[in-house]
Design brief:
It is built from 1 helix and 8 strands, in the order αββββββββ. The protein has an 8-stranded antiparallel barrel. The protein is elongated. About 4% of the residues have low confidence. By secondary structure, the chain is mainly β.
């Protein structure tokens, strides 16, 4: 499954030279994030993503994040479509549906846990300069499935800078 997702993302990146010039072809985001998982984990960390835009409103995102709290490390590797509303020069709202894996490790405990994750969310970006924007907020509701147990009271909130090419 992961190989298929990565292959689809790389293929999508190869298609960008044929797209129209009225939108950014690629957006690179990096910033702070806070994650709360139902198992009483609330950690701070980082969030990074790359989005390839096919046209003015549709793109594909690869999203990676890490959150840490008291020796517990949670990393998410998510991929999926994003829809953007680019009618304003200053503010761009977006929504996305991301699918992938959350990997949790605990310091001093052998082994780790992997779970299928779905993130439904969106946010708002505002233009700061010609190729730089600020992601005011990205909020995601996350559904995780670890070892037969599904948890739905999970959330992630991010903010940071976007570089547009």
């Amino acid at each position: 499954m992961r190989k298929w997702i990565v292959s689809a993302f790389l293929l999508a990146l190869c298609c960008f030279p044929a797209a129209a010039q009225d939108h950014p072809k690629f957006e690179l985001f990096g910033g702070y994030q806070f994650t709360h998982l139902e198992s009483s984990f609330s950690g701070s960390g980082w969030n990074a993503s790359g989005t390839g835009n096919f046209n003015n409103w549709f793109g594909v995102t690869a999203d990676f994040s890490g959150a840490y709290q008291n020796g517990v490390h949670s990393h998410a590797f998510l991929f999926g479509p994003v829809l953007s509303y680019r009618k304003s020069d200053r503010l761009t709202p977006f929504v996305h549906v991301l699918f992938g894996d959350t990997h949790v490790t605990v310091s001093g405990v052998p082994g780790s846990t992997d779970g299928f994750t779905t993130a439904l969310g969106g946010g708002f970006d505002t233009k700061l300069a010609n190729h730089v924007s600020w992601r005011i907020v990205q909020a995601d509701w996350m559904l995780t499935h670890f070892s037969g147990d599904t948890q739905g009271k999970n959330a992630r909130v991010s903010t940071g800078l976007i570089f547009r090419f």
